[in-house]
Design goal:
The complex is a heterodimer of chains A (110) and B (116). Chain A has no helices and 9 strands. With 110 residues, chain A is mainly beta. With 116 residues, chain B is mainly beta. The chains are: A mainly beta (110), B mainly beta (116).
Amino acid sequence: DAKTTQPNSMESNEEEPVHLPCNHSTISGTDYIHWYRQLPSQGPEYVIHGLTSNVNNRMASLAIAEDRKSSTLILHRATLRDAAVYYCILVNFGNEKLTFGTGTRLTIIP
Amino acid sequence: GAVVSQHPSWVICKSGTSVKIECRSLDFQATTMFWYRQFPKQSLMLMATSNEGSKATYEQGVEKDKFLINHASLTLSTLTVTSAHPEDSSFYICSASLTGLPETQYFGPGTRLLVL
């Protein structure tokens, strides 16, 4: 499975935008880029996913590099409730299995 | 929509006993459900993939006779930890994907198991 690399931790101030990077240099043409987040003591929560084009939803935006070897999850205005571990995961089309890496622990500073 | 529940949310049991954890998709049908285990300060590890009406597929290193999985309907999968030991203490999480839409998984809130 193609792997992803994320920073172990990041901090951001409340009400400011947050850019969470993810590198996936060995991504294949049929890999989707998924983002999930896990709040403390809870199951993970789907955030967003994309293939080639940038994507927006009510939770976040996903910016995908033109060569698809990296992507950035953007939280437009961080709140304290966004403090979580964020996982960037490649999911191959037709294979539903998710392989979780270590993710990025996001801390929001009030 | 797309809510997954787990029961119980936490359980304490004695060593040697068996514990059953239920995972339900409340408002959708799930052809496939997944079971994960998460130890403190670690990431989620996939244990098995459960398909309705067929045997579960276990990941390498996961004992199928110890972690019994049953997926009897499109809305219910169960994980039974048999003869539990303290090293089985963990956070067990299930997920489900919508039938016909495999891209997204919806996770349950998790079950915290403590074996004494």
